[in-house]
Prior knowledge:
By secondary structure, this protein is mainly beta. Helices cover 6% and strands 52% of the residues.
Amino acid sequence: xxxxxxxxxxxxxxxxxxxxxxxxxxxxxxxxxxxxxxxxxxxxxxxxxxxxxxxxxxxxxxxxxxxxxxxxxxxxxxxxxxxxxxxxxxxxxxxxxxxxxxxxxxxxxxxxxxxxxxxxxxxxxxxxxxxxxxxxxxxxxxxxxxxxxxxxxxxxxxxxxxxxxxxxxxxxxxxxxxxxxxxxxxxxxxxxxxxxxxxxxxxxxxxxxxxxxxxxxxxxxxxxxxxxxxxxxxxxxxxxxxxxxxxxxxxxxxxxxxxxxxxxxxxxxxxxxxxxxxxxxxxxxxxxxxxxxxxxxxxxxxxxxxxxxxxxxxxxxxxxxxxxxxxxxxxxxxxxxxxxxxxxxxxxxxxxxxxxxxxxxxxxxxxxxxxxxxxxxxxxxxxxxxxxxxxxxxxxxxxxxxxxxxxxxxxxxxxxxxxxxxxxxxxxxxxxxxxxxxxxxxxxxxxxxxxxxxxxxxxxxxxxxxxxxxxxxxxxxxxxxxxxxxxxxxxxxxxxxxxxxxxxxxxxxxxxxxxxxxxxxxxxxxxxxxxxxxxxxxxxxxxxxxxxxxxxxxxxxxxxxxxxxxxxxxxxxxxxxxxxxxxxxxxxxxxxxxxxxxxxxxxxxxxxxxxxxxxxxxxxxxxxxxxxxxxxxxxxxxxxxxxxxxxxxxxxxxxxxxxxxxxxxxxxxxxxxxxxxxxxxxxxxxxxxxxxxxxxxxxxxxxxxxxxxxxxxxxxxxxxxxxxxxxxxxxxxxxxxxxxxxxxxxxxxxxxxxxxxxxxxx
Length: 762
């Protein structure tokens, strides 16, 4: 394998660049501050406050993070609503392109394909550590941003913040809330592949302290680069607020989103770098070339439907000027069912009607089905307060949480799609729909959590912080199988039970306690800059962070209830600088995460917990304003993710963790050229990635690195209307956005597309 695939960054001394950037900007910051903050007129001192940057929110909206972002001893990226608007980012996956090294790089395992926001971060699947307003979001569908105020990405273990979570960190989407002003913002977009989208945001005051807000969204589009792929979603989000500006505030929110999409199982990796035919009999594939990236290998029966409903009530009471108590109750339900047809790899899956003509060869397909209902009911109480003990200041956030999560996976009858031509697929095939067979799987997890965080202002420049969280959980799980079948995993029918009947095969429960904690220290070198250290422990129970017993494991299963929790330990050393009159935040951090108690399969088929992983590297970021008219957000990371102990190595035999680019860069910049014209441009680089290991033969063991550029042109017609044109993948780069574990399938990156949007304000 070529060791120089990452040449664009292999010799780039990013720490030197960052230091030089800080030094170079400091004189500019001093000059701007001297020129703009104080002006004298006769004997009157006029202080002109700088407008906060719309690209760099100063604080997290989650009360668990009580300190400003610049003084938080963690790597945090806050993606504001303005960034989303300027980029035309309409879903969470697109929003996360502003965070280096975070993305949907994994396309599924074997015949299964990922759907929705399948996010990898720092070498770990983080899809189950996505939160909305600090509450776990149970959806596996695509999350639209029409009702999102900002997206907060916290890297490193978040167990002390949210309980069980991925060791890589967490993603928190903050919902829009009513305000004490009245206005309407609406947008209408058209774009490539018959893309149509409309949104409306109505905020209306009702008296002096109450307001109503309504956000609506509708979108319908075809995929520009893929045949037959269509997406359609609609959303409504009404909300009420009472007591705004007073000591007692009540918020009532509801969110409904429905989606009707065509799932995409990807295309064969034939012809990609690293591919070779799986057998001598299929050697012609070595020279047959890539398949058309627009090819669709599904059927007319394929679909992906989901419905999400969420109701939230939050009450806030200011006990005094420094103490606030908040109580939040949320009920949410997500129902999703889909039929996704994807090709199956391997030489035995290829049929050759004419050995001399590859155009006649066919590949078998697998029908992936899902029919699931997820529910969550939670009540959270949080108290924030500030006080002094002697000369030491305290900034405290503490609370309790009660949560019940339930999941029902409905068993459905198997479907068998016919083979598909490799180079000329025909999707005009109907294989029927989903029919339930009673072989359901049911899980329920009840969790009680209690936590406390404190930041101690020891001196004017020195702070200590720490936090601890205890979670007690109880999980019940049962599942049924259809008896009387044949092949691997077949279950015999008990006496008197008819063949094809569902019978309970797993009925188990488990309980446990998880203790997560963090500690840090921060020292202000100057008024504008600091250095910090942080150490955190995060745990999640066997079976992952969705359910403590995700699959009801018994016997030799990797999800056995007698296993210890997976444990992640993260160390971070960083510095943050607010420059240019505190309008631009520059950050740099060194990090290391060690993950223990990873489950590994032994040679005899049993499982043990001896696996260890490590992710280490550094990250640089910038967010805010360089000048009043010039805004930026971006970052660069170099990360080395490897298996320290265990068998889970990459397909190329190295110890590298898959789906984790060693180098990743992202930058978006916008400049207000005149009062009416704005221009924006961005670029991102994703380095070469390893894929997971299995028994696949001849498939690529890696994906190549790539650059993608985007651009925007905005024009203000008048005070009520502005237009913007966004162009994505400006240079029409051909790249692999994600690859499946076996390397048989991949999702090509979207080609050059455009979106024209009219934004209206009243």
